[in-house]
Amino acid sequence: MRIGVCVTSPNEYRLVAENGYDYIETRFMSIVGASDEEFEAMKKAQAACGLKIEACMCYFPGTMKLYAYDPETGEATEDFAEVEKNVREYSERGFARAAQLGLKVAVIGSGGARNIPADMKRTVAEAQFARVLEICGEVAAKYGAIVVIEPLNRGETNFINTLEDGLKVCGMVKSDHVFVLNDFYHSMKENESTEWLAKAGSRLRHAHIANEERTCPTLEKDGERLLPLVKALVDAGYDGRLSYECALLPDVETAIKNARSITDAFRALKAD
Description:
Elements: E1 2-6, H1 13-18, E2 23-27, H2 28-33, H3 36-49, E3 53-57, H4 80-98, E4 105-108, H5 111-114, H6 122-142, E5 146-149, H7 163-172, E6 178-183, H8 184-189, H9 195-200, E7 204-209, H10 219-235, E8 241-244, H11 252-258, H12 260-268
Parallel strand pairs: 1-2, 1-8, 2-3, 3-4, 4-5, 5-6, 6-7, 7-8
Helix pairs in contact: 4-6, 10-12
């Protein structure tokens, strides 16, 4: 298993490298929104630290329109063609840039953007979101990457709250480049059984972890709670990436240094 850290500033890339992690994860929407000068700074920081930005979270901003529907009926409208166009252009800009940094997997959480409006039919939203995912997958494929659906707890969105939900939506998507992610913080909030890790099988292509306070875990404080969860992931046959997606307190360097012991423990886990 390869372990990385989610950071937001190019100034933090070197800290991830210096503390023995395997890759960097950062915000997709920041790569999309960066000026040419800001993107050049990202490229320089990535090259200097020696690690690739293999993963990106925060795909869409909360203001991104992903649905088009009639509030009177809840049904889809022809305006969805404009949504498709915008999603494709947004994704193209992001993947064209992120590929230069080493991107292999883009995480689509974006709970605000995907939240289903109260006056929209759920089946319509599911179908439109599945199409959004297809478009993202099509663009990702051009650049040798994949996208993964991130379940988020009910406090953050009303759509796709568990790995079970994510697998259902994944099954609706006509793409070989759309998969699912498991985030242990959200699965703990939802009290989801680890049995779904095995049920996901090869469709599970990325993972996030944090402790129950959503801060960076340590072996002393969080090992008893988190090691069995990651062991279940390993037992399910997973041997991919696992990123710390959490508040890095009191600062990035201290947090990721303190996490090194539990990182070593995660890496040492073997399947039964």
